[in-house]
Give the backbone structure.
Amino acid sequence: MQSPRHSSRSSTRRSRRVLAAGMLAALLAVSGCGAADDKSGSSTKAADAADNKAAAPAGRADAASGQSDRGATEGSPDRSTGSPAPTTSHVIRKASLSVEVKDVPKAAAAARSVTEDAGGLVANESTDRIDDLRETSHLVLRVPQAEYDAVLRKLAGGGKLLSRTSEAKDVTDQVVDVESRIATQRASVARVRKLMDRAEKIADVVALEGELSNRQAELESLLARQESLKDRTTLATITLDLAEPESSAQGTDDDDPGFVDALGGGWHAFVTTVKWIAMAVGAAAPFLAAAAALLLLWRLVRTRRRTRRAVEHASVPPEAPSAP
């Protein structure tokens, strides 16, 4: 027969087991409800996740840049000791050359050849003739940045260098800023398009179309600016002015004149005199014609008067002589 103390202990153990089983059942019920809530919540958050998916690359890039900035500011050991990431520099280079050459057409052809051999192009070219013997040429050349200095040396060595100016402008910050803004704008356009796909009301569709149009226009403007920066940083601009010396145009003006020069000068004077006489005769021709016509008319009138007088004089009989 069991003692009363032993029976009380066994009953206490049973009650503890029952209590533990009840608590376990309650915990299982609560976890099941939580799992059901998670499943329903995941379905409601799917649309939001689709909207944020397009902006995730830009957000991760911004977050990474923000963390790197915070790490550099706070002076964390792993970031302060590491070397910074290399950044490609973007520089716009321009130069202007004025060169005196003996033959402008040949020098212009040589400049074009040097530019094309370096992988560049001739953006603009114009040639003017100052007089019968002198020519000038203006060329705008675009050459790769790597060949910029070499092309400058070759062009300056093609004749007598009169002037040279060069300019370099670092636009790395502008390039990086435009690239970042393009990435953000593309993500924004993608989000608006997803919202348009989900929109059901006409008013919402119209509002989203206007917003999409504005964001597309801004994106196209940023892309055009990026293309312009890429063109100016990839190819350097060289403006070349070619001119012939004045002495070559003068020829032998400083030499003593010879027989041929005198003959040519006399012939030129003769031709000039004949031209002036012809011009004077041409100018006086109307007046001479009018004077000739008046003179002819006057002579006709005078001849008729003389004829009339002669006829009248012949018709009158002579008077008889008087008696002595």
About this structure: The chain has ten helices and five strands. Confidence is low (pLDDT under 50) at residues 1-8, 27-86. Residues 77 and 270 are 99 Å apart (CA to CA). Residues 259-315 form the longest helix (57 residues).
